[in-house]
Amino acid sequence: MTDLLLLPGDGIGPEVTAQVRRVAEALTPDLQIEERLFGGISFDTHGLPLTEDTLAAAKASRAVLMGAVGGPQWASAPRDKRPEAGLLNLRSGMEVFANLRPALCFQPLADASSLKRELVEGLDLMIVRELTGGVYFGQPRFIEDLPGGGRRAVDTQVYTTAEIERVARVAFELARGRRNKVHSAEKSNVMETGLLWREVVTDLHRRDYADVELEHILADNAAMQIVKNPKQFDVMVTDNLFGDILSDAAAQLTGSLGMLPSAALGLAGKPGLYEPIHGSAPDIAGQNLANPLAAILSFEMALRWSLDNAAAADHLLASVIKALDGGARTRDLGGQLTTVQMGDAVLAAL
Ligand code: NAD
Ligand code: IPM
Ligand code: MN
């Protein structure tokens, strides 16, 4: 059985996952690693961003780690064959409904954020993003021509009780092991899905998690509070679209979008999907400039959540912090290191 399936993808994806591979080979030499094409490169080679074979390999491995997909070259690919569609199919095919996006401000990077040091120093915010439902998957979705000219586009935001409850449960469980506080973010003031979200979370809280502090917050206010006073938050649970947007904002609190890893988890015993939250960064791709730490920290999460190796995860986390302490900085963090040199720094710290 493959332990770790690597899906490097497009743009900076292959550059950052190459550093994950070096780290994995040094830290956990017994790990069985396999690699496959995914995203735009898979579309160019096989005509599909995610082949049936690759999805089957993903489901049969213990953990999947992907780099990033997409880029301007595929802007005119058929909608259902775009690299991003492959990623959505991978998430839903693996049934990884809970996406953990931890925004941690490491001590040595407190000055790298565009926010003031005192606002971000010591930040430890966990965003739990619903990942296999909502407007990303709702039907119908289409663009149609209108008889009188012009066109009409439709997306559908849809959530069921079961979908809301299972992701909220993950958030409450996580909070119990942290600072015991959950913010649930939605737009119950204007959206039916937001209203149901609030009711289901309230109900579940009353039934099973009354010991955890729960606060409901409107998603627009959450965006403002994240940049005003991010340390008020412990765990924030939210839907697919709001989670996408709020986690990019939270990433900048940690110093750079190149710092934020993620773990997408499904039912116990099933493989997790690990991905940096950044994209393929076409503006810097192929130049050895990307920060590989979000990808390396995604491997750290894979060790912890899917590969049963918390000791190796702790060691890797400590090594990343040590490298940063020693001044290792890629350009996005205000330094001069290349992608490979940042990999070298982590390896040296290991
Ligand atoms: P992006 O995350 O690729 O880039 C946004 C900005 O952040 C760019 O300036 C980029 O240079 C910088 N950046 C991102 N990652 C970095 C890293 N590791 N080190 C240094 N700088 C980094 O977002 P975008 O430009 O909006 O999207 C580009 C493409 O990526 C699109 O096709 C999009 O659909 C795709 N995308 C894919 C994923 C994914 O595969 N998970 C995530 C987001 C976007
Ligand atoms: C992310 C990305 C993806 C998303 C895209 C590429 C499909 O932005 O993982 O944050 O919107 O989920
Ligand atoms: Mn995103």
Give an account of the 3D structure.
By secondary structure, the chain is an alpha/beta fold. The protein folds into two domains: 1-97 and 266-350, Isopropylmalate Dehydrogenase (3-Layer(aba) Sandwich); 105-258, 3-Layer(aba) Sandwich (Isopropylmalate Dehydrogenase). The protein is 41% helix and 19% strand. It has twelve helices and twelve strands. It has a ten-stranded mixed β-sheet, with helices on both faces. It binds nicotinamide-adenine-dinucleotide, 3-isopropylmalic acid and manganese (II) ion. Manganese (II) ion binds at residues 244, 248, 277.
Topology of this structure?
Elements: E1 4-9, H1 13-27, E2 33-35, H2 40-46, H3 52-60, E3 63-68, H4 83-94, E4 98-104, H5 117-120, E5 124-130, E6 138-145, E7 151-156, H6 161-176, E8 181-186, H7 192-208, E9 213-218, H8 219-228, E10 235-238, H9 240-253, E11 263-265, E12 272-274, H10 293-305, H11 310-325, H12 339-349
Parallel strand pairs: 1-2, 1-3, 3-12, 5-10, 8-9, 8-10
Antiparallel strand pairs: 4-5, 4-11, 6-7, 11-12
Helix pairs in contact: 1-10, 1-12, 6-7, 8-9, 10-11, 11-12
Bound molecules: nicotinamide-adenine-dinucleotide (NAD), 3-isopropylmalic acid and manganese (II) ion.
